[in-house]
């Protein structure tokens, strides 16, 4: 870690992992030499993204792709377009992705990438040109058997379509398996947009079942109102729960009778905020503060990192919250996790709870390789099986290595590490 002294997100994540795997190494001393190799990405690619804005001015951003670990299969992980993107954030997300992908049981390695651009400030034409310039450099580093990027914050199926379009033009042939999260017409899997949000709710339902509870009648706060959040809300409601609050980067909304997801999606789709949505609703109240200070039984942070700090965690505990499951990557800070743990609030780590998206991306790779298209019902059934098996793997490792089947954070780290360490050991020192 001394090699990169200013990478705080990445260091915090590595430290968390190291704390969890001590008991695994006692049982498997043969994996000890894997640890140092695991913390060093196989490859870090940093590149210039030049493009021309609508005024004719040449602009430049930084693109990054971290190919972290390919022991289990091709690097797999999303592309994030956001002003906050830097090497620290992408290494943190890439490190998480290695273990998340292992937990899905699919044969995929871990990677992550993105650019420090704010897509919301770009016109449609500018964003397409940006994606094409980004893809021009990315193309030489990816491929169906090498590295298979998908979307993440700021990168949806439209942007993946544009990136894939430029890639296809450069390589000169069709290779749909080189990207996932594509539009359906280009070979995108049914249910890929829904998968992370739906998967997080399937995982949450398993957590609640262990407590003898379910979502029927539960009051749920879901932060964010982007891809993951909206589909998580949809599945919460389909499971009998009420979404009593949500948020976006501009504020939050409380609506005790339940958020209307279709109405929210429409407002967000037109570039509006949750406050604009609240204005149209008789029982909704907008605020500048966090959604996690609301009364709720279940909290699903689905927006971004560090949304739940000590203050929000204490509020959740005071309100008697049963379970917090991470739909986003790293939304609950280490201090907040400690507060939840001490209060006995169930915690579902993102590594496991939000792995549904990458799991369906792996199913998209399978469909593209076999030139098949599976129905939404078929993919949903497989997703539920994958999330259930991931939960079992995590709970069993928590019990075996940490003596507590509810300690899913340590369980996820231990179970993910075991699968990657076994693959790395089998490959020899590479
Ligand atoms: P989107 O860009 O679609 O949505 C992000 C949402 O979070 C937006 O509504 C945004 O607000 C909101 N937001 C951003 N910052 C804040 C903040 N500080 N407080 C409250 N809300 C905020 O991204 P996704 O839904 O795709 O991703 C969300 C999270 O899930 C990320 O951490 C991502 O890494 C993770 N994830 C995503 C996967 C996927 O399949 N998409 C897979 C696994 C993890 P606004 O609408 O105002 O922009």
UniProtKB/TrEMBL annotation:
Asked if the record carries the keyword Oxidoreductase, the reply is yes
The Glutamate/phenylalanine/leucine/valine/L-tryptophan dehydrogenase C-terminal domain is annotated at 189-428
InterPro entries xref list: Aminoacid_DH-like_N_sf (IPR046346), Glu/Leu/Phe/Val/Trp_DH (IPR006095), Glu/Leu/Phe/Val/Trp_DH_C (IPR006096), Glu/Leu/Phe/Val/Trp_DH_dimer (IPR006097), Glu_DH (IPR014362), Glu_Leu_Phe_Val_DH (IPR050724), NAD(P)-bd_dom_sf (IPR036291)
Instruction: Work out whether the entry's keyword set contains Nucleotide-binding.
Output: no
Q: This protein's superkingdom?
A: Bacteria
GO MF term (any one): glutamate dehydrogenase (NADP+) activity
SMART domains attached to this UniProt entry? ELFV_dehydrog (SM00839)
The UniProt keyword set, sorted, is:
Oxidoreductase
PANTHER family attached here?
NADP-SPECIFIC GLUTAMATE DEHYDROGENASE 1-RELATED
**Family note:** Belongs to the Glu/Leu/Phe/Val dehydrogenases family.
* Complex and partners: Homohexamer.
Which protein are we looking at?
Answer: Glutamate dehydrogenase
Please tell me the species this chain comes from. Actinomycetospora flava
